[in-house]
Every structure is written in C-alpha cells, then in structure tokens.
C-alpha cells in the first residue's frame, strides 16, 4: 500500500529526510517512533503529498503521489488529480484541526459533499454511522468547542474515514490529550486496525505501538535506522540509538 524508496526532503537547504526506505502492506499497521525533529511528521506529509519530495520515490497503492506514468516517464499532475489521490488517504493530526464553526456532523460530511459531490441525505446518513462507530452518536449537533479533546479527536478520525480511504495516517493522535482521554482515542484506532485498515501511526505511546503495530520503524535524523516486528524493535532493539530513545521514553 505504501512503498518509500530513498525518499529525500529538504527545507531551505537542510536535509530533513535523507533517504527514507520502508513499505507497508495492505491491512498492516506501521508505527513510527523517534525523537522530535527526526522527520516523522514530514514523512507523513510526504506520503499524502502535502509536501512534494525532492528525491526518491513514494508509491501509494502502486501510484506515485503527485505524478502519473506516461510510458516510462513520470509527469507531475495537476491540483485536481493530486486532490483525488489525496482523498483516498485519511489523515489525523495531533491538534484535531476540526472546523470550529461546523458541527461534528458537518465536519464529517464536508469532504464527501465537496470532493465526491454526493447528495446531502446519503452523506449525512453515512456521517451519522461514522460518528456512532467512534462512540459519538449523540454529539452530531455539537460544535468542537463543546467537546472534550478526546471527543474532538474521535470526530477527526470519523472525518478522515468519511472518504472511505484505503490508507490512514496518524500524526501523534494522542499527544495533545489529557492522560485520561488517551484511552478512548487509542481504542478507536485499535478497532480500525482490527477492521483491516492499513495505517501509518506516529506515536509516543510505546505500549500502544507494541500492541497495535505489526511493525515499528525508528526514525533518527531523517532516516529509518531500524524497522521490524514491534516486539523485536521495542523489546530488543539492535541499534544503540533506539535503545537510548526507548530508555528515555519509558
Ligand atoms: P518530527 O515530526 O519527527 O518531530 P518534523 O518532520 O516535524 O519532525 O521536522 C523535521 C525537521 O524539519 C525539523 O528540523 C523541522 O524544524 C524541519 N521542518 C519541518 N517542517 C518544516 C517547514 N515547513 N519548513 C522548514 N523546516 C521544516
Ligand atoms: Mg512531528
């Protein structure tokens, strides 16, 4: 579902991704860990082409994001095609980023109505079901300011699911939450994993990564320095930097 080969990204002459290589098979969950500033968020943003890459290759479901093949050459595609590619990838951010002036239901309904142009009744029916699936059936008419952080993040997950994505990306989905609200959000993500959704999850929750991650990748200075089964990377890492990082996070 995701294939990254020597992915490079530079900001103002500084190398932020220095040859990232990884892959995620359909139905699998990859958890990404690593120190602040190591390029984890940048990598997620490259996967859905919120950031164009400066080198290497990034394929989602076999398609190069932001490009299309004609013959054996790659051509950059226009905004409309990128937006179609991106609509197949759901993204959930640390700070929810819900639309403050819209209810939960409107937040979840917006993208299917705009991008897919589907009729209001069907979209809202779907949105109600999605809100129910994240435990918020009774909050459809609430505005973000009337919801707890955990509830807002569950709306954000429902919103990302509304386009029926084939891939979900999570960037530290629980790090802005009070500790007592972390569990309800992790529970929703766990159910998504159980349903077979392919996911890439940047997280500081090591226990969660161990339970949910088929594999764990350790980022350091713009590269993946170690990747393997969650149990192995978190339990007996081969790299000294991974070991030191895990000791600091314990
Ligand atoms: P992480 O998510 O692992 O904490 P990031 O991907 O956010 O790391 O950032 C990696 C590096 O890239 C950091 O040094 C950060 O300052 C830099 N960076 C991230 N986004 C931008 C940007 N839009 N412009 C310039 N530098 C950026
Ligand atoms: Mg980050």
Automatic annotation (TrEMBL):
Coiled coil: none annotated. It is found in: Cell membrane. SUPFAM superfamilies: P-loop containing nucleoside triphosphate hydrolases. This is ATP-binding cassette domain-containing protein. It is a peripheral membrane protein. InterPro entries: AAA+_ATPase, ABC_ATPase_HisP-typ, ABC_transporter-like_ATP-bd, ABC_transporter-like_CS, MetN_ABC_transporter-like, P-loop_NTPase. Belongs to the ABC transporter superfamily. Keywords: Amino-acid transport, ATP-binding, Cell membrane, Membrane, Nucleotide-binding, Transport. Residues 2-246 form the ABC transporter domain. The lineage of its organism: Bacteria, Bacillati, Actinomycetota, Actinomycetes, Pseudonocardiales. GO terms for molecular function: ABC-type amino acid transporter activity; ATP binding; ATP hydrolysis activity. SMART domains: AAA. Pfam families: ABC_tran. GO terms for cellular component: plasma membrane.
